[in-house]
Amino acid sequence: MKMSQDLRQNIPPSDLAFNFVDVVALDGQFPVLAGATLCGAKGTLTAVIGGNGAGKTSLLRTLAGLNATSRGTAQVLGCDLNLGGGQLVGRVGLFGHNTGLYDELSPRDNLRFLAKVTRNSKRAVDEALAAVDLNSRVASTPLSRLSAGQRRRAGLSAMVLRSPELWLLDEPHASLDPAAKVLVDHLVAGALRAGSTVVLTSHEPELAFFMADQVAEMAGGVVTKITRGQGGISDVS
Amino acid sequence: MFRDAWAILVKDLRIELRTRVGLWQVLPFAAISLILFSFALGPKASTLAHGAAGMTWVGVLFATFLVVGRSQSLEMGTGVSEAQRLAGVDPAGMFLGKAAAVFVQLLAIEALLGLGAKLLLHMPIERLWLLVASSVLATIGLAAVGTLYGAIVAGARARETLLPMLVLPVLVPVLISAVKCWQAASVSKGLAIGEWLSILATFAVVYLAAGIILYGQVQESQ
Questions:
Q1: Is there a domain that residue A69 lies in?
Q2: Domain boundary assignment for chain B
Q3: Measured between CB atoms, which of A98, A104, A162 is closest to B87?
């Protein structure tokens, strides 16, 4: 918590990607954050760890503007979430347990659709598919017929295509083979190099401490401890 | 808005072409309902011809619920709806695109049911332009209302039964006007149709406007 206060004092507000102070957030009528305090500078990686039900996913969804905030200061990319999450549209990407893609369409068709609505080119679609190592056969197969790992890669390719300012990754290494886990690390490193901010959740504390600039521990919908990480992700070429 | 609408329309029709739910499930259902109505009325050709317009449009109404339900179910899967919100898809464009896809599918179903009414129920067609114009206007209304209400009930547990309960009373003016227009199209002259066409046009415009304005709020409240 002290680290968050230090960060707030040492960094101009305009350089903070997100700034949560005592945030209470609701999913419908149900409180999912019970006074969470955390902030992160632009271009940094924050890892969130904690047990099941600690509030990690809820924190990401709140950062994305998908959960309503009912108390506290909640600013993301300069937008006040207490005024609604609509201002974040197009600037935040959330990669969770769901792919956010249409099961009936292939990864390529999904990305082509996404490219149209986000004003990206067809070339960007091919580049995004290549970035997650989806070969042309897999990229042309309906999502419903792909393995869990391939679906995760397809979901990640959508994030690559959109390249949002704030990447929110909910257990991005889950259901992936070792090679794909390395691929995720490369994508995260690339996003950070491009100036994006990344917040990810993890069930692997050692990995989180190694990769992240700061590690937030959560329990019961609040951030209980913030520790400086090793920032090892920046060494990933 | 129109760019997003076009993208949604192409995407929904592409999914329909891939899965063919409309072809193998909705169309047979509508055709069977038309045949069952004709069985209920008996074999007399004049009775069938007289009731053909009504039977066809009740069949179209039933098909509307299936097409709209299918259209909304596409957006319910695997976090799609939230992903599109975050990607910045314009809700008005989303509404227009989905309504347009429903419109195209319903119009295809109407064309085939109309053909069935002509061949099986001996429905005479004297003014084809009226048949086409009224079908287009009525289908815009059906697609707009269905898409808007489909989104409203999308988050409800009993959405499959809730949708017809909410939408049927709203669609009564469309049903009556479309049937009147089709009946008028079956005679060469005599029946005034201006008022019925006006009702269909007004209904279509009002619900298209309502959908464009309200769809975003409906999505956010889910």
A1: yes
A2: 2-220
A3: A162
The CATH number of whichever domain residue A79 belongs to comes to 3.40.50.300
pLDDT higher for B95 or B86?
B95
SS (H, E, C) chain A: CHHHHHHHHHCCHHHEEEEEEEEEEEECCEEEEEEEEEEEECCCEEEEECCCCCCHHHHHHHHCCCCEEEEEEEEECCEEHHHCHHHHCCCEEEECCCCCCCCCCCHHHHHHHHHHHCCCCHHHHHHHHHHCCCCHHHHCCCHHHCCHHHHHHHHHHHHHHHCCCEEEEECCCCCCCHHHHHHHHHHHHHHHHCCCEEEEEECCHHHHHHHCCEEEEEECCEEEEEEECCCHHHHCC
pLDDT digits (tens, 9 = 90+) for A184-209: 888 888 888 888 999 999 888 888 78
CB contact under 8 A, B18 and A105: yes
Cross-chain residue pair B77–A102, CB shorter than 8 Å:
yes
Average pLDDT over residues B80-108: 91
Residue A124 lies in a domain: no
Q: Could you read off the pLDDT of B211-222 as tens digits, one per residue?
A: 999 988 887 776
Residues of B in contact with A102 (CB under 8 A): 11, 15, 74, 77, 80
Q: Do B88 and A89 touch (CB under 8 A)?
A: yes
pLDDT digits (tens, 9 = 90+) for A16-66: 888 888 888 888 788 888 888 888 888 899 999 888 888 889 999 999 988
- A162 to chain B: which residues are within 8 Å by CB? 87
